[in-house]
Amino acid sequence: MTAISETADVTTRPDYPEAGADTASPRLIKQVRERADRTFRLVSSTGGVIVLAIMCLVGIFLTVNAVQAIAAVGPVEFLTTQEWSPETNHFGIAAVLTGTVLIALVALVVALPLSLGTSLFITEVARGGFQRTLVSIVDLMAAVPSVVYGLWGLAFLQNNVIGFAKWLSTWFGWIPIFAVDGADPANPLPNNALYGSSTFIAGLVVALMIVPIMTSMMRESFSRAPIGEREGAYALGATRWGMIRSVVLPFGKGGVIGGTMLGLGRALGETIAIYLIISPIFAINFHILQKGSNSVAALIALRYGESNGFTMSALMAAGLALFILTMIVNFTASTIIGRSRSGAESEA
Amino acid sequence: MKTLFSARTENHDEPDLVEHVQQPGGLVADNISAWFGDHKVLDRVSLSMAAGEVTALIGPSGCGKSTFLRILNRMHEMIPSASLFGEVRLDGDDIYAPSQRITSARRNIGMVFQKANPFPAMSIYDNTISGLKLAGIRATRAEKDLLVEDSLRKASLWDEVKDRLEQPGGGLSGGQQQRLCIARSLAVSPRVLLMDEPCSALDPTSTRRVEETIESLRGQVTVVIVTHNMQQAARVSSQCAFFLAAQNTPGVIVEYGATEAMFAHPQDDRTSDYVNGRFG
Ligand SMILES: Nc1ncnc2c1ncn2[C@@H]1O[C@H](COP(=O)(O)OP(=O)(O)OP(=O)(O)O)[C@@H](O)[C@H]1O
Ligand SMILES: [Mg+2]
Fold first, then answer.
1. CATH code for the structural domain at A75-347
2. Residue B246 burial (CB count, 10 A)
3. Band (B9; pLDDT cuts 50, 70, 90)
4. Which of A131, A162, A169, A337 is most buried when burial is the number of CB atoms within 10 A of its CB?
């Protein structure tokens, strides 16, 4: 049967004449909103608009203040210069931005397995009171101020990690990022100072700071993996790890990515702990185990006190670069999460 | 269940999936009591489920049918407060014995749940053979293709999905998902298949398909099915057990026997009332 018959330019559907011409077009539906709904819309949209406005204001403020400095050296110069000496009109963010990214990457490489393990342990292994205790300890870790982490890293962690850093550079020094200039593997008593205040140690401390927030997000998403699917896997003879791999991890993928990006964002912006630990240098240093590192936020904290006018504008420019980097990370994160959700949540 | 790979192995002498093709197993529940915390829900229940036969468990809501079924493949112990007494023997071996692995017990005694639970993000193809992967069994692409088709055919789903095997399992309709779960369970060649109200969320057509599947499994797999549908019990099962829990007492088996006899001439008044729809 043909559903549509065409006579002249009128389409009739179905194809018997009594039905007449198809003149239907979608009608407009006007919705009258309830009072409570109107109030709710007003309040919630006000909140949203205010947050958005503040974000824009920060961006505009930074841009306006940064223009002077960036114009003085030119954007290319600003992105590629390693030194930071606005007084002599010779400055750029190449070293500090690289340092920021390196510290954040070290932090992420350490924090990702740690928080994955912790969150899986909490959701899949620990039970009852032990589970609740662990959850609150992790949440407590998130509440410790970063200056405390910084002090602890400086006074305790650094001394205890230098041995490991030495071991790494001795055995894996052939990998460029683990090399340490001036280290002599033959010397049984190498100079400890070579290994202190490095990107690695700063990254380690930042890792400890971002583990709690990453763990919380991953734990949240893992714990929502449906019991039905879990039992389905077990009923096929899965081991606990098999069940985790086929049910919990795919389900929690969005949470893992989201948590990681949140951690990365925080690591990029971390200031005081890094400021306390690194010994600032203004040269790109890919040797993460070697003394000397830098970060945008630490630079601002370091130079802010003595700045005015043009030097302040230079710091604003550095801040703007960090702001943009964080925004990119967050937008990437939300796109990835958005995309990964579509697969996992197509349950009927 | 033996037919699929036997022809092929005569040409190849490597050990492969054939090892996992098995005879139906006889299942015996011996003196089972079960508790959730202090709450006793089953009291000294014994039941023998003959190899290759279909046994139906019927009874009013809350009398412990699901609990009993979950005890048969060690799913009961997943619930933290749950405990039990008694033995479940698969061809004479107690599956709760310390020497028995929980994973092999569950692989031998598969389970289909009331609510379809395919792995939603996994493709239909991968869903079907997910049991192999979970058990760490390796197979070539050709073997997998064969197994996928065979399992989906057994679950009478093949014709509907053969053109979209790479699409996610979560995208199927409810009835198709349930049949996918049946296919997934069959792919690991279980000796016993437990089904807990597999059709309660399905339309009549899907229900008939599932019943046909059960019918075709007779002699290949031992099937134990919980159902609230008396006609279904009468259609698919050869043996039947009637569970009942009186007010505030644990569940027991009131009557057990050949389905036909039990529906035609129940020995117990309560069975007669239940199968004739007078309570429950
Ligand atoms: N996870 C649990 N925790 C505590 N009690 C439970 C749990 N699961 C079941 N029970 C109790 O065990 C008893 C038997 O439940 P079960 O699910 O086995 O009944 P059923 O016969 O399958 O019922 P239905 O026909 O409604 O599915 C009920 O009293 C129920 O309240
Ligand atoms: Mg039940």
1. 1.10.3720.10
2. 11
3. very low
4. A169
